[in-house]
Design brief:
This protein is α/β, with parallel strands linked by helices. It is 44% helix and 13% strand. The protein is globular, with a radius of gyration of 22 Å. The protein binds pyridoxal-5'-phosphate. Residues 45, 107-109, 112, 136, 138, 184-186, 211, 213-214, 237 line the site of pyridoxal-5'-phosphate.
Length: 431
């Protein structure tokens, strides 16, 4: 990525200390900023945080050690840190309607590992969605610690509908008697039936974990049903649709608070990342506002509109469309693999990831699909009326990937840049 002449002064202006101490690194941050400003970012797990979240995550809270929890620390000097963490905890509980919140997990994967530590012994059985069907590694998949230290059994989606079949989940749960059941995933374009999963978990005596990492912001904004009435534990990252810093939270019913807290610390972690806790608190405040509810609904409206525009251009969408922020397109009928398409789209300034589709005959490293999401473009204020143009670009570039037509890729790259200039991204001084 060429750094444009006008950018040369920027690091010194916005990050003077960094530019002075380490110009090489400062230039890289600047280049990443430029990339985020002028590409169309469609990775469903990514977003743009606000300038306020960005500022909170770069503070002197970084300098504090505070093992333990507010009022119960192993270090002195917690007069302020205790208040910061309490603010984040109280906001999390209020926003998601759960009894208890732990805001210390370093990220979504360690948060999920803490859930295993809280409820399972090594070798115990966990029921989760299969990774290539849309689940997450930490839901008991083989290469993950959760699938090697525990016995993972997996449900998927139906071949004919592309949707989770709760009858299959119930049959598996009855046969395998898992202690833990995960619902939620990373490539699930449809509403998660928390009530249905809760009924199954109750029947077999399992703890139900709703892993809402992808959809937490939609839940906060009222654009996806809440798991609060149904789940024993809600696990979420804070950096996807929730638009916070990279981090995670575990929300629980009162009866599980102690087990989950002890699993996070001292079970798995040492000192919490207080600068992240502060930024989570800011993001939770933002997510409680009316603007955020409008944002969450617009994310879904944009995904629906983009899905319809893609379907009209012959794209085969898993489950036929979407209820949330993401689309999974099977490119088999387009004559290219997901990886070839994703790389061509990246050259055109459209950033997606290649992804397996359910029952994918291809290998995970070069699968049949691409995964497309609208959280980041919606954060830029791009409206549904632009989804036709976005779908058209995707169609042109996927076809260009098949035919090797790089001039079309370059032409789309310029058009993408022009649209991005019209919709400045939050948190980017360049925009
Ligand atoms: C992203 C995600 C995670 C893991 O989060 P990391 O912060 O990447 O460790 C866990 N579960 C689900 C469903 C996710 O989408």
């Amino acid at each position: 990525m060429a750094v444009q002449p006008s950018d040369a002064r920027r690091p010194a202006q916005t990050r003077p200390a960094l530019a002075g101490a380490d110009p090489e690194l400062a230039a890289l941050v600047d280049a990443e900023e430029r990339l985020q400003a002028d590409t169309l970012r469609l990775i469903p797990s990514e977003n743009y945080v606000s300038a306020a979240v960005l500022e909170a995550s770069g503070t002197v809270l970084q300098n504090k050690y505070s093992e333990g929890y507010p009022g119960k620390r192993y270090y002195e000097g917690q007069q302020v840190i205790d208040q910061v963490e309490t603010l984040a905890v109280e906001r999390a509980k209020a926003l998601f309607g759960m009894d208890h919140a732990n805001v210390q997990p370093y990220s979504g994967s360690p948060a999920n590992l803490a859930v295993y530590m809280a409820f399972l012994e090594p070798g115990d059985t966990v029921l989760g969605m299969s990774l290539p069907m849309g689940g997450h590694l930490t839901h008991g998949w083989g290469v993950s610690a959760t699938g090697t230290w525990f016995r993972g059994v997996r449900y998927g989606v139906r071949r004919d509908t592309g949707r989770i079949d709760l009858d299959e989940v119930r049959d598996l749960a009855r046969a395998e008697r898992p202690k833990l059941i995960f619902c939620g995933g990373t490539a699930v374009p449809r509403v998660i039936d928390f009530a249905g999963f809760a009924e199954i978990a109750r029947e077999v005596g399992a703890v139900l974990v709703a892993d809402v990492a992808h959809i937490a912001g939609l839940i906060a904004g009222g654009a996806h049903p809440s798991p609060a009435p149904y789940a024993d534990v809600v696990s979420t990252t804070t950096h996807k649709t929730l638009r916070g810093p990279r981090g995670a939270m575990l929300l629980t019913r009162a009866e599980h608070a102690r087990a989950v807290d002890r699993a996070v610390f001292p079970g798995l972690q040492g000192g919490p990342h207080n600068q992240t806790t502060a930024a989570i608190a800011v993001a939770l405040k933002e997510a409680a506002g009316a603007d955020f509810a409008a944002y969450a609904h617009q994310v879904v409206a944009n995904a629906r509109a983009l899905g319809e525009e893609l379907a009209a251009r012959g794209f085969d969408l898993v489950s036929g469309g979407t209820d949330n922020h993401l689309l999974l397109a099977d490119l088999t009928g387009k004559g290219v693999s997901g990886k070839v398409a994703a790389k061509a789209l990246d050259r055109a300034g459209i950033v997606v990831n290649y992804n397996t589709v359910p029952y994918d005959p291809r290998k995970p490293f070069d699968p049949s699909g691409i995964r497309i999401g609208t959280p980041a473009l919606t954060s830029r204020g791009i409206p549904s009326s632009e989804m036709g143009a976005v779908a058209q670009w995707i169609d042109l570039v996927v076809d260009a990937a098949r035919t090797g037509d790089e001039s079309t890729v370059s032409k789309v790259r310029e058009e993408v840049r022009t649209m991005m200039d019209a919709y400045p991204a939050p948190g980017l001084p360049l925009a």
